[in-house]
């Protein structure tokens, strides 16, 4: 898929053309580096909910997800119990899939453990940033060596619904790679943001 003209007439990644709501998400979020643990946890959870669905569905429900899951504060979500699961299963504003709901709660607990070991989710996830010289052409694959490695490590720690494709989409969105098309006007903007970004490191 090539580029499509954005609201300003400049080229954007072709997937933006599916719905107009994709343009602000693409222009303001997708690919820009993130070091905020709550945002990182939210995105990984939403990508797991997307499994088998479209990002269009998830993006439309994102505010509902945030309200339902304590704005993805994993310290709070880790305390959710069976009553919360039943509440979420009755919430028509989100994707009511028991396995995925239970996975978010499980993953919140695993996130708390990871932060205790590594200092932050950001410090851990950014260890898996690949060398740009090893990356293929943008948007030509759905997994990578880095996403396979991160997926494997998360599963080993007990995380759920974090397959290599889900993790790759997470890495694309959170800026661990710049997967904007070469002709997309935002590729250069993301490259500059990544250049200025201070990579988080594990707390000593």
From TrEMBL:
InterPro entries: Adenine_glyco, DNA-3mA_glycosylase, DNA_glycosylase. Zn(2+) binds at residues 13, 26, 180, 184. The keyword Protein biosynthesis does not apply. One of its GO terms (molecular function) is DNA-3-methyladenine glycosylase activity. One of its GO terms (biological process) is base-excision repair. Keywords: Metal-binding, Zinc. SUPFAM superfamilies: DNA-glycosylase. This is DNA-3-methyladenine glycosylase I.
């Amino acid at each position: 898929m090539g580029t499509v003209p954005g609201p300003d007439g400049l080229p954007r990644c072709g997937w933006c053309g599916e719905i107009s709501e994709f343009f602000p998400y693409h222009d303001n979020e997708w690919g820009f580096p993130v070091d905020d643990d709550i945002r990182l946890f939210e995105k990984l959870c939403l990508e797991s909910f997307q499994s088998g669905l479209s990002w269009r569905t998830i993006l439309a429900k994102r505010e509902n997800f945030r309200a339902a899951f304590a704005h993805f504060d994993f310290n709070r979500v880790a305390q959710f119990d069976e009553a919360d699961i039943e509440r979420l299963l009755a919430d028509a504003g989100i994707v009511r899939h028991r396995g995925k709901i239970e996975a978010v709660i499980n993953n919140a607990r695993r996130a708390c453990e990871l932060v205790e070991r590594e200092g932050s989710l950001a410090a851990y996830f950014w260890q898996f940033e690949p060398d740009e010289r090893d990356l293929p052409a943008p948007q030509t694959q759905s997994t990578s060596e880095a996403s396979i490695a991160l997926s494997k490590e998360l599963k080993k720690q007990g995380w759920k619904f974090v397959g290599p494709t889900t993790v790759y989409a997470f890495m694309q969105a959170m800026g661990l790679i710049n997967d904007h098309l070469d002709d997309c006007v935002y590729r250069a903007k993301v490259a500059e943001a990544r250049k200025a970004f201070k990579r988080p490191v594990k707390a000593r």
